[in-house]
Amino acid sequence: MSGKIGIALGGGAARGWAHIGVLKVLAEAGIVPDIVAGTSIGAVVGGCWGAGELAELEDFARGLTRRKVFGYLDFNLAGSGLITGNRLSDRLMKSLGARSIEDLDCSFTAVATELGTGHEVWLSRGSLVDAIRASYALPGIFKPVSIANRWLFDGALVNPIPVSVCRALGARYVIAVNLNADFCGRGTVIPHGAEPEPMRATVDVEVEASGQSGAKKLLLRQMFGRGDGGPGISSVMFDAFSIVQDRIARSRLAGDPPDAIVSPRLGPIGPFDFHRADELIALGEKAARRAVEDIARELEARRAMDRRRHATAR
């Protein structure tokens, strides 16, 4: 097929490990995107894929436990985010080094949001690690990242599934991966007095906080659940962010639909369940296998059409 294949990897925090499974299945089927656009965790996975480090990212993800996840959270109550992100940044640097986006094997763009203006910023040049960090800097959780005199944070606030980026960069066929299709429901209006649905389980911090100082135990309980059944700060922030992201994604996909969409059925797996990579990757693979035959068939039909068009032109 003349023209390029693009893939838009959406945001979704921990649920983004499913992107790994999707990319693996597509590659096995010979479907390799020329253009990769990622938002938030989609930028992490897409950047590692473009750098040829997807296998290393998969090993890292599968090796995470709740305790290891907490170990990457360098709390900083004096800054503009509860987590400085330095430990995660150091881990990315260890894997990706000083790579520039221009050095990748594909055309890659990370989407971020500019603080103050709300501008959608496409990061397609310069430091790969900085672009990824800016794209996943969840406001209030991670410190914003300064790039080219702009303070940037999570791109999911403006473009949760960046199909438009792939189109603008010349993709003729765009595959979108939506991680939140079954996360927020349909925004139903519920009358007063209706029976509430059960909440997703919050992170069990009592076990993970053992061995921590009293101050850090208190902070962890505030962040991830307080033992009284109520949600912690992180659950409230992630859920609120996911609802906003879901509504924006629905609107943007309706206005600029992809040619194919892969929607892993991730069920109750929450946005902070980074330790559940085995399940998430498997669910990504399962979703991609459901879609890959149709995608391959459509791509072959377009190639055949191109061949006929070229033959007619001669």
The tally of beta strands, per DSSP, is 10
Provide the β-strand percentage band: 5-15%
Largest sheet: 8 strands, mixed
- Give the SSE string: EHEHHHEHEEHEEEHEHHHEH
Helix vs. strand class: alpha/beta
Mean of the pLDDT scores? 85
Gross morphology is globular
Rounded radius of gyration (Å): 20 Å
Question: How far from one another are the termini?
Answer: 17 Å
Number of helices: 11
- The poorly predicted ranges are 201-211
Give a written overview of the molecule.
With 314 residues, the protein is an alpha/beta fold. 44% of the residues lie in helices and 15% in strands. It is built from 11 helices and 10 strands. It has helices at 17-28, 41-50, 54-62, 66-71, 86-96, 128-136, 163-168, 205-208, 214-224, 233-255, 277-313; strands spanning 4-9, 35-39, 81-83, 107-114, 120-123, 140-142, 145-147, 150-154, 171-177, 260-262. The strands form 2 sheets. Strands 1, 2, 4, 5, 7, 8, 9 and 10 form an 8-stranded mixed β-sheet that branches. Helix 1 crosses helix 11 and helix 2 packs antiparallel against helix 6 (128-136). The longest helix is centred in the C-terminal third of the chain and has 37 residues, at 277-313. The radius of gyration is 20 Å and the shape is globular. The two termini are 17 Å apart. 43% of the residues are buried.
